[in-house]
Design goal:
single chain; mainly beta; five-stranded antiparallel β-sheet; five-stranded mixed β-sheet; about 5% helix; about 55% strand
Length: about 160
């Protein structure tokens, strides 16, 4: 899976890459890797490990190479979406954000997701995002991952 983010001539680019909904049920804590490839003045590469645990989520830098390595992936928020609403378990919402290394830069992303049969992945569209976010806490089975920058055709 891939995504793209560019920057302007004066500021870095930033965007929400994915939103992950996760619960305390077995197999409902997805994880994976995100690779960032940056070009512009010079090239660079970073690889991050991400994981959405029961009530927490985190990002860990695994690898960094090249001349341009100031791009970043952050877990910008981890909030309680609803208490006890999924078979007695809480549902948490974790938002992952990416930022280019500065002006005149462009990033491409490769998203690796480790999941089980209970994980549902959604793709971005103007009508799909609000529906996905608003129905995340009612009747979901396991975890849900909303990829904000990925289309079905790019997979």
């Amino acid at each position: 899976m891939a995504g793209y983010l560019g920057s302007s001539s004066t500021t870095a680019g930033t965007m929400t890459l994915m939103t992950v909904y996760h619960t305390g049920h077995w197999g409902s804590q997805p994880w994976g890797f995100i690779e960032i490839f940056e070009d512009g003045y010079t090239g660079g590469y970073k690889k991050y490990f991400w994981q959405a645990d029961y009530s927490s989520a985190h990002v860990t830098l695994m690898d960094s190479h090249g001349h341009s390595t100031s791009m970043s992936l952050t877990m910008s928020s981890n909030t309680l979406e609803c208490a006890g609403c999924h078979g007695g378990q809480n549902v948490w919402k974790s938002v992952y954000t990416v930022t280019t290394g500065g002006a005149y830069r462009s990033n491409r992303y490769k998203i690796h997701i480790a999941m089980n049969n209970w994980t549902i992945i959604g793709y971005d569209s103007s009508a799909f995002s609000p529906t996905f976010d608003n129905t995340s806490n009612t009747g979901i089975s396991g975890s849900r991952i909303h990829l904000h920058t990925v289309s079905q055709s790019s997979i």
